[in-house]
Amino acid sequence: MITAKKVTKEYSAKRALDAVDLCIPKGSIYGLLGPNGAGKTSFIRIMNQITAPDDGAVYFGAELLRPSDIARIGYLPEERGLYKKMKVGEQVLYLARLKGLTTSEAKSKAKEWFERLEMTGWWDKKVEDLSKGMAQKVQFVTTVLHEPELLIFDEPFTGFDPINTNLIKNEIKRLNENGATVIFSTHRMESVEEICDHIGLIDNGKVMIEGNLLEIRKHYKDGTFAFTTRTSITDWGEHEVLSQKEDPMGYRTILKAVAFPKDLVISLSQKEALVAFEEVLPTVNDIFIEIVKNGPKPWNHE
Length: 302
Prior knowledge:
CATH topology of the largest domain: Rossmann fold
Structural class: alpha/beta
Low-confidence stretches: none
Mean pLDDT: 89
Order of helices and strands: EEEHEEEHHHEHEHEEHEEEHEH
CATH class of the largest domain: Alpha Beta
CATH superfamily of the largest domain: P-loop containing nucleotide triphosphate hydrolases
Shape: globular
Number of strands: 14
Distance between the termini: 29 Å
Number of helices: 9
Largest sheet: 6 strands, mixed
Strand content: 25-35%
Number of domains: 2
C-alpha cells in the first residue's frame, strides 16, 4: 500500500528521516514504532502531504503519492483538531464534505457510526462541552467516515477508558477486515502486540527493523521456555529457572535453556508430570527496548 524509498527529511540542522526504506503491505495493520523524536511523525506528515521529502520518494500502491490520494487516506493525528465552537454534527459534516462526500452521504454514514460508537444524542452538542474521550470518538468518526483505503492512527487511544479503548480496537480490526490498510503509531506496546501483524521501528531517523511481527518475535527469541507441571518440580538440571508460581493448571516454571530442552520434555512426559509446554517469545516491548539500547540483531540469511 505504501512504499518509501530512501526518504530523507531535514529540519535546520536535524535530519529527521535518513534514507528511510519502508514497505507497508496492503491489507495489513502496521505498527509504526520508535521513541520520541525518532522520525515517526515526520514520516506520517509526508504520507499525508503536509510536508514533502527533501529526497527519496513515497509510493501509494504502484504510483508516486499524489495530492489526489489524500481523499483515499484517513488520518487521526496525535494532536487533535476539532473546532470547539462548532456542534458535533456540523463538525462531522464539514470534515466529510472536505473528503468529497455529499451532505446526504455524510449524514447517512454519520448516523451509522454514531449508533456503532454509542454517540446518539451528541449531534447538537458543542465540541467544547465534550469530555476528552467523547471528543476523541468524534475525531475517530471524522477519520473513517469517507471509508478510506488507508487509515493512519497516531496514538488513537489517548483519553479513552478501557471500555472505549476496546470498542475502538474492535472497530479498527473490523475496518481492516473490510479491506482498509491501517498504520498504527503508539507508545502502548501491548496494543501493538494485540492488533498489529507487521511493524517498523524507527530510531534517530533510521529504520532499525521492519517486517512480519511474528517473524521478528521469533528472530529475537532467547531460549526462554514455559513448563506447566502437575506438581512443583525443584530439579531442572542445568537450566536456569527464571520464575515459578502456582496457577489453575498446576505449577508454571519459566526457564532459560541453551538449546531446545528436548530431553526435559520427554522426561516430564514419561513421568506424566507435564501439563503444557511452550517456547516464550519476547514481547514487542522487550524487542523495542533491546533495539533502542543496542541496535538491531543481525539476521541469519542461511
